[in-house]
Specification:
- The chain is built from 15 helices and 21 strands.
- It is 36% helix and 20% strand.
- It folds into two domains: 2-198 and 295-370, FAD/NAD(P)-binding domain (3-Layer(bba) Sandwich), CATH 3.50.50.60; 203-293 and 462-467, Alpha-Beta Plaits (2-Layer Sandwich).
- It has helices at residues 10-21, 39-45, 63-72, 74-82, 117-129, 182-188, 262-269, 329-347, 352-366, 368-390, 399-410, 415-425, 431-435, 440-448, 458-467, and strands at 2-6, 25-30, 86-89, 111-114, 134-138, 142-147, 156-161, 166-168, 171-174, 195-198, 203-211, 225-228, 231-237, 242-250, 283-284, 289-291, 297-300, 302-303, 306-307, 312-314, 320-321.
- The protein is globular, with a radius of gyration of 22 Å.
- Bound molecules: flavin-adenine dinucleotide.
- The site of flavin-adenine dinucleotide has 38 residues, from α1, β2 and α8.
């Protein structure tokens, strides 16, 4: 089968690797011109990727993605390690807590490889370059789709590049990321508009990278993501003695936009004791990296039970984006690439309607719940922040939100609760399965009864911001 993949990002390149190993001929087209270059530092400092706005923002590859790569594309793991990616255990910062009582057999499932995103992409790109069956063409922007000319539900037969080249394909995979132009291209060939669900609101990220002179890392925080009044913080380890601290705030919380100033950012980071040392250990190697436009978005080409076009399937961010606070996008994209390979193996391309419907059903049933859960969390979190700005406590009777709040309080108070939380946060287990473990929900309710230890208030956060001006 001859497959064209639009976009050589994390999902597109993983799909190419999996499909080529499955015997397909894959051409990856990416509009960005340059190659990763030689080694991790060249990828970090020189590789230009205007096609991916978040390219130099902190990224954690969750354990589920690491396990997928280790099982399916071990050469990519070896390449990552050769580039300096370091083994990182998600729970390591919690083992010394008295309530947790150390590391257990089986905790290796919380291992992953830590590396800056350009290094992860370089590893996938280098592996693809050595894999038979893959052609990577950088600097080739897809400008339109080729079709069989069918007026209703056209069949996509390839792509047209910005330079006017026509490239035929048995199947086109849209891995064009959060700004994928494919929905518009489908309409251009006569297809009905895909269903696009989009939240108008969203979050802003303000992140900063650091490096130690001797390759050492700051002590790991008990869990890498903390939610506080009006702000969430996440610690992101990298390769070669680098790491980042990312601060996430509601986009409509205008007062917090002053976080783009390095002095204000540093002062705010210092307010949160579990993570403050991630902003003082070592030296900053970037200014404050700001990113907006991170709303949850979901595109579906199956409308009213039928695909708007056949011969094209979307994966990764081109299908749906999730709140980056939870660091799930790489894992979702790689899992989606694996699902694509498996559905293609099962269905083939003999009946393209059937393929589109089966892939849609598999996507929505396996990855859909994670998208829905983060989108729901976003709405609550934004409403909670609105309440905080207005000086009102946020109240809702949504049981899922209340359980998530309880879990946040309980996660470091019990070894089984921590592992249930860790399995879900690492995308190894669904929340339903983790919470179904004997005694876990009871223990969460018991521990949450004690209430959360209050962190810095919004007033303290704003005072720190103003103090820096
Ligand atoms: C601030 C921020 C922080 C994040 N942190 C994390 C994290 O910690 N962990 C995590 O797992 N995820 C994180 N994410 C999410 C993650 O970045 C995405 O989920 C991931 O990049 C999706 O991969 P993708 O391959 O689907 O899309 P992308 O990586 O965006 O790749 C799309 C590719 O398509 C190419 N392209 C687009 N249009 C065309 C065209 N017309 N022709 C040819 N090529 C085209 C682009 O050049 C690009 O290379 C974060 C996101 C943001 C915004």
């Amino acid at each position: 089968m001859n497959i064209v993949v639009i976009g050589g990002g994390l999902a597109g390149m993983t799909a190419a690797l999996l499909l080529a190993r499955s015997g397909e001929q894959v051409t990856v087209l990416d509009r960005d011109v340059t190659n990763p270059g030689e080694g991790a530092e060249e990828a970090w400092e020189q590789w230009q990727r205007p096609g991916v706005n978040q390219f130099r923002h902190p990224h954690i590859m969750l354990p589920a993605a690491y396990q997928l790569l280790a099982a399916e594309v071990p050469e990519a793991v070896a390449e990552l390690q050769a580039l300096g990616a370091a083994t990182h255990n998600m729970l390591a910062g919690a083992y010394d807590l008295p309530a947790i009582g150390g590391r257990l057999e089986g905790d290796e499932r919380f291992d992953t490889l830590a590396a800056r995103r350009p290094v992860i992409e370089a590893a996938l790109g280098n592996t693809a370059a050595k894999t038979a069956g893959i052609t990577v063409r950088r600097g080739v922007a897809v400008a339109g789709l080729l079709s069989d000319g069918g007026a209703i539900r056209p069949r996509v037969t390839g792509v047209r590049t910005r330079d006017g080249e026509s490239i035929a394909a048995d199947l086109v995979v849209d891995a064009g990321g959060r700004n994928s132009p494919v929905a518009t291209m489908l309409v251009d060939i006569g297809a009905a508009t895909p269903v696009i669900t989009r939240h108008d609101t969203g979050f802003l990220a303000y992140s900063r990278y650091f490096r130690s002179p001797d390759g050492s890392m700051p002590a790991q925080s008990p869990w890498p993501l903390e939610h506080h009044d009006s702000i969430s913080l996440t610690t992101v380890p990298g390769d070669a003695g680098t790491w980042a601290l990312a601060l996430f705030v509601a986009a409509r919380d205008r007062e917090l936009r002053a976080l783009s100033e390095p002095a204000a950012w540093q002062r705010v980071a210092a307010l949160y004791p579990e993570m403050a040392h991630w902003s003082t250990y070592g030296e900053p190697i970037t200014g404050v990296l700001a990113m907006s436009g991170m709303e949850a978005r979901h595109r579906r080409i199956v409308v009213d039970g039928l695909p708007v076009a056949t011969g094209i399937l979307s994966i990764g961010d081109a299908w749906a984006t999730t709140d980056p606070t939870f660091g799930m996008g790489i894992t979702m994209g790689m899992s989606h690439a694996l699902l694509l390979r498996d559905v293609l193996r099962e269905q083939g391309i003999g009946d393209l309607d059937k393929l589109a419907l089966r892939f849609d059903e598999a996507t929505e049933s396996t990855l859909g719940p994670a998208y829905e859960a983060t989108a729901a969390w976003d709405l609550h979190r934004l409403a909670q922040t609105d309440g905080s700005i207005a000086g009102l406590a946020y109240e809702t009777d949504d049981q899922d939100w209340m359980l998530r709040q309880a879990l946040e309080i309980a996660k470091l108070g019990d070894p089984d609760v921590l592992r249930a939380f860790g399995d879900v946060g690492s995308m190894l287990t669904s929340p339903e399965d983790a919470l179904a473990r004997p005694g876990v929900v009871d223990r969460i309710i018991e521990l949450a009864g004690a209430g959360a230890t209050p962190g810095p208030s919004r007033a303290e956060l704003l005072a720190a911001l103003k103090g820096a001006r």
